[in-house]
Structure formats: structure tokens, C-alpha cells
Amino acid sequence: MKKNFLKISSTFPSILFCFLLAPIIIPSFVKSACAEEYIQVPAAADLRTEFSDGVYSVEELVKLAKSKGIEILIINDHDRYSLEYGFWPLERILKKKVEESSLLKNGAKNYLDEIERVGKKYPDMLIIPGIESAPFYYWTGSVFSNNLTAHKWENHIGIVGLESPKDIEGLPTLNSNLSVKYYKNYIYNTAFFTLSLIFSILLIRWEGVYRYTGMVICLFSLLFIINFHPLRSSPFDQYHGDKGVLPWQETIDYVNSRGGMTFWHHLESASGIGKKGPISINTPPHPEDLIKTQDYTGFQAIYEDTIHVTEPGKEWDMVLSQYCAGNRDMPAWGIGGLDYHGEGESGIKLQDVKTVFLLKEKTKNAVYEALINGKVYPVRQGEDYRLVLDEFSISGTSGVKAISGDEIEVQGSPNINIKVSAIPPLPPFATSPSPPSEGGDKGEVKGGIKGESVEVQLIRSGEMINKFEGETPLEISFNDEHLPGSEQGKFKSGDKIYYRLNIYGKRPNYIISNPIFVKLLPGEIKEEPSPSSEAAEPSPAPEELKKVEYIIVEKYSAIRNGPGVEYIKIGRVDKGESLELLHIEEKFYKDKPWYKVRYKDTEGFIWGGLARKD
Q1: pLDDT tens for residues 26-45?
Q2: Which one has a higher pLDDT value, 254 or 539?
Q3: Residue 586 is part of which domain span?
Q4: How far is CA 294 from CA 159, 258, 263, 264, 323, in A?
Q5: Is the domain of 128 the same as that of 68?
């Protein structure tokens, strides 16, 4: 017993010493662990394989990606890749259909099984099965006039997270698999021709002219029953003109109902206009679809084309501002996309555009979680180097730190920290560079390349509030002391705002960050003094710019984000409420114009048939 007591006594001072040091050691450890909570993992997205119009098999694509230091592949093969044109009134019988290789043509189960097989063979790679869908197109012109044109055929939306063959086969795409989902849209035509078929059978039982008449009616009834069958894959068809964004919204809603994610692809690409054999293809840039649709997960903020939607105040900022104002349920996250079919095709290489994932662990579920929560940033790289966003964080006086995709409550002025470095474009390189060393001339240093010029644009709620210039490695610490004053209007306690970054190096290198949302708490925001009553009054506005109040005469009217019923609702006004008229649009509905108006802090459009002058 004495021996054991002596042993315990000898170790007691060490235990006491560790206990006394715990308050110092543990916080330091926690702080370090938080800083290293996420790892940066590069991915390539919007890729084709032999399952549609790609050059490589899934395994060949994985091998190529490994050689370029890419650890995640998001494959988006076409669900259907076909055009179908028929002649009225039997468009679905007297038709010409051209269909190329696609995921559904080759089998959704085969596609998913092959990705699973290759994934098991290369466990260090994450292969995410996805789809690129063109839910709708419509025809104008005629084959006889040699001006037949398919519109919006290359208006694509990317889909991730559908890993059931049944869910993929049920996508609401034109001329695809049979489905009972939309039978109610077509059942009336089918019912009418079914009744005529029954009537014809009764006539056939008679003799003479009635029998021959019944046989003719029977034949046409059968043809029209086949032509108008209700088991269609889409509630739309290509013969009745443009349907706006409704077909794409239908796809977004379908994917959401199956637990998947949707991303708008190449919104501003000019490659959708041209010829496909004797047929003209017309898919012009359509960045406005970001605003017109709801509940999608994100969009390609970087791809190999000119992009304007990410510029301050453009469509992406409009969407994010709607989310902050409570007029959208979801923000929109930016990702990178390649439209990759084979190495060097259209000048595109697999490493050119990456989506860098911020992951706590390298698993498929972690990839999905990062996509849903905006824990990614897209980057375009050149031949010499790739930019890395080592840090983009916001903190308040409490010390709590938020990164891309997060929302943080801040009392007072947000503190914004940014770190940008450059690394070699191809391996070997560090996925998440360590802090570069000090001193020396331009060149490669530990964890990165030193001396590359970089410009960082800090954007707050659609307005570029500061621009920083320097060389890699660049570190920026910025306190937004003048938060209340901006061209977009003064912010107040309770408002939700956001910050994001556009980062540019030597062309073509650049990064687009995803936003960090900030909710302003009451307390320390420095309100700017109101103008003195003795200040000079502004000169009166021209007569045509004077404010005109309108009164809503109906019980309820929607404010929309564009002049037309096809645009989404961003607010509502009740009978008797006044609106400030900003502009009378040239677009009419039922002989009444659309008005651009301001209601409280919201600008939008209402139909002139619901308003009259005060």
C-alpha cells in the first residue's frame, strides 16, 4: 500500500501543473482547431462522358483529373439530347426525331452503376453523378420555308443529388419517358376521342354507309388517341410558343421535391446560336432567368465565356438582395463550370475552371452539404498560376467568425478579413497553402507564388465599397465603419446585408466568392447626421420627373420583379395604399401598361389596370 501511495504522490505535481495550464492550453487548441476546420478541395464540374456527348469514359475522365490535381468530379451528362418536329394535327405520329447519345438513352441505372464502380476503384476521388437538362424548346418557322428554328434548346440547368434511376427518368423533359404525372393536362382530349371511338364502333355494327363512316371515324379516333395520349413526360410541348421560365421552374420544383439541387448553366453564353444541320438553333444569353426563377441552388458564376451577372449590382446581386429582404426563400450560390466534352475541345482544358470546396471531411455527403450551404468558391486559372482564397471571414465584437455561406449577427461595424495567395496551376502543390514566407523577389515560396498582382473588390449588398490592390500573398483587414452610408440607401438595425468578393489577377485568373450574410443588431451603428435644415435645397426636378402617387383600386395587387405576369412576385399591396410611380413601361397587358413603382423600400412593377391617379 505504501508503495502505491508513493507512486501517486510522485505524479500528483505533474497532474496539478497540467490542471493549472489547462485554461491557457485549451483555448489555444480550440482556436487552432477552428482555423483548420475546413480543408480546400478542388473540383471540376459540368463534365460530359460517353454516356452523352463526351469523349471519355467515366474512368478515363477520373484518370485525367487525378493527373491534374483535381479530387472531385461533378459529371453532368445530358438527360435527353434530342429534337422532335411533327406535322399538325398528328405531331406525335407524323414526325421526325433526331436523338443523340444521352443518359436516358443509355440507361440511368447503367450511368449510376458505372459511376459507383469507378468510385470504388478510385477511393481517393469523389465522383458526383449529375445531369444537364434542357427541359423545353419551341419551334418557329417551317421546313417548307427553310427557316425552321428551335428556340431555347440549349437553355440548360444542371442537376445534382438525384441518385435514383426512377427520379432521373421522371424529369419533366420534352419527349422523354412515359409518365402519369401530367395526365390531367391531357385527359380531356383523350376522353373526347375515346368517346368518338365508342361511337364509331356502334356505327360499324350497322350496315351500309353507317358502317363505312364508322370505320373512318374509328381509324381517326385511334390515331388521335395515340397522338393525344396523356402519359407525357412534360406539361408543355414545342408547338405552342414560348412558355417563359415555367418549364425550368417545373424542373427546379421537381428536383427539389426529390431532395436534389439545381444550378443554372452558362447563362450568358453566345454559343447557343447557330445551325444544327438544316435547323437553326436560337438560345441567346438569358441572365434574367436568375431573377425570374425561384428556389434553385445556384448558378455558374465562372465558366469559359464573358460573364456580367457577377458584376456589382447586376442580376446576382438583385437575387441576393431579394433574399435579404425576405422575398426569396433561398440565396443563390456561385459555382464554376466547364461545359467539358474532351481535352482541348473548344479550347477548354479540365483544369481551366475549378470549384473549390470547403470541407470538414472529404466525403460525398460533405460535398452535398457544401453545395447547399455555399461553402465553395469558383476560380478561373491561367497557365502560370491559380489564385487561392485562403480566408474570407467576417466577425463582430463578440469574436464569432463567419465564412462564405454563413450568416452572422453583428453589433456595430463588421470586421472583414481577406487573404489571397497564388499557387502553381498543376500538381504538385498544396491544396490549402500555408502562410507564404516574407522577403525575396517574385517567385515560388513555401505554400505559394509570391509577387503576382491582384485586385480585390469588396461588394456590400450590390455596391462595391472598396478596392484593394497588392501582390500575393495579400492580406487585408477592413472595418466597415461607414456601414450606414451607401448609394443603395442607409442600413438600419434589423436589416440583413451581405458581403462578397470579386478577385482579379493577371488574365484569365480570377475568383468569385460566395456571400457572407450579416444581420445588423441595434447598438453601435454610427448613424450619419441628418442634413442641416439650412443647407441649400436641391434644384427642382424637371416636370416629367416629379413624383406621382397612384392608388391601388383592387383588394390586392402583386408587385413583380418585371413588367409581366410571368415575373415572380416580390411583394403585395392592398386597396387604398399609395405607390410612387417611377416609369411607365412600353409593355401592355389587356391594353393597360405596366408601371414601375416604389412601395416603401421595394421597387417593382404592377399592372396599370389595377391603379389610378391619386
Answers
A1: 333 323 233 348 999 999 99
A2: 254
A3: 543-613
A4: 15, 16, 11, 11, 10
A5: yes
